[in-house]
Amino acid sequence: MKKIMTVFGTRPEAIKMAPLVKELQSNGQFDVKVCVTAQHRQMLDMVLQLFDIKPDYDLDIMQHGQTITDITNRVLKGMESVLQQERPDMLLVHGDTTTTFASALAAFYAKVPVGHVEAGLRSNNKYSPYPEEMNRRITSSIAELHFAPTVGNVENLLAENVAKSSISVTGNTVIDALLSVVKEDYRFGNELDEIDYNNKKVVLLTCHRRENWGEPMKSIFRAVKRLVNENEEVEVVFPMHLNPTVRDIAREILGGDRRIHLIEPLDYEPFANIMGKSYIIMTDSGGIQEEAPALGKPVIVMRTETERPEAVQAGTVKVAGVEEESVYEAASELINSELEYLKMARAVNPYGDGTACQKINTELLKYFK
Ligand code: UD1
Ligand code: UDP
């Protein structure tokens, strides 16, 4: 039996790799090993618990105030030992984090083939998202197999001379994860049950990207504050990322307002369900741009560009930039114009039908045949 090792370290990687781990395990065609770097500690553990995944290896690398160089060093060194010990037939990495890139590099040094899940997304700006765009490019040049969510992602890879035979279109595993946790009549069991989702316009906010630290993040939060001040019916829910840089700015600008709920990060199940109950979503996250359209929720993306153009083209995601005025205008239009809102609030799902993990399993079987 061939040995497949998966490695992931942050919340989004865990959410998107969990259904794949489950699929590979339940099919029983591979010897499956799970390694986590724990680039995130608590936010990773929340996902492991939800999906009941017990890693075989845990590098436990997270440090407060870690730089991308720290993460790279610690993952590279940790993965060297794990790969030496296990000698998997393939290492599956996910997406674009520093865990992804450093693990792929460690596998290359150990001459272990790499399969890249969520391959081929490009913004074509190496500093935005930073460092993710470059993490993805480097991982593409190392990988042996590329699991691309969309046809557009395949085209990006072909334009970089990646062999066509090594690429498959699978959809995004995030849809597999999302469909497994969103439920009608979901109850949170906390203060989120007290919000009047029918009569209030609930804005779900997330913001964490490195390129937004500092002035862009302040501008974004000022725009949100203005939106609340000028619209009585708006109520904001912001599950704050655990990064202290983000939390300090959020508390300074958004703290102390009874219509702004600054709360701890939510488990994936309540988070997916509050997406479903929200009026609109304002975010700089990658994964949320894929999930919210599937739930029919308009998304304002607080970034200068996106590597996920599919939902923008479909009209359910708007890239608003990071200026106070542009973010405010984009959100205000959706709050105040029913017509604009209805144009965007359509369920669109360019990221697959929830069978990405099954397709990846099939591609892996083909590869080893
Ligand atoms: C990382 C990824 C980013 C991804 C994001 C998802 C890199 C360079 N960045 O960014 O691509 O979009 O995760 O959330 O790979 N922290 C905790 N507990 C946690 C998680 C984070 O305390 O469970 C704090 C720590 O102080 C840590 C800091 O947040 O040092 C930053 O974490 P880090 O992984 O370096 O960066 P993110 O901004 O989370
Ligand atoms: N998410 C979550 N709890 C939260 C905020 C986000 O479970 O409090 C989920 C969200 O549904 C998505 C993923 O985390 O699947 C996005 O992670 P993040 O924004 O940290 O990273 P990115 O997608 O930008 O890399």
From TrEMBL:
<dbReference type="InterPro" id="IPR003331">
    <property type="entry name" value="UDP_GlcNAc_Epimerase_2_dom"/>
</dbReference>
<feature type="domain" description="UDP-N-acetylglucosamine 2-epimerase">
    <location>
        <begin position="22"/>
        <end position="361"/>
    </location>
</feature>
<dbReference type="InterPro" id="IPR029767">
    <property type="entry name" value="WecB-like"/>
</dbReference>
<dbReference type="GO" id="GO:0008761">
    <property type="term" value="F:UDP-N-acetylglucosamine 2-epimerase activity"/>
</dbReference>
<protein>
    <recommendedName>
        <fullName>UDP-N-acetylglucosamine 2-epimerase (non-hydrolyzing)</fullName>
        <ecNumber>5.1.3.14</ecNumber>
    </recommendedName>
</protein>
<keyword id="KW-0413">Isomerase</keyword>
<comment type="similarity">
    <text>Belongs to the UDP-N-acetylglucosamine 2-epimerase family.</text>
</comment>
<dbReference type="Pfam" id="PF02350">
    <property type="entry name" value="Epimerase_2"/>
</dbReference>
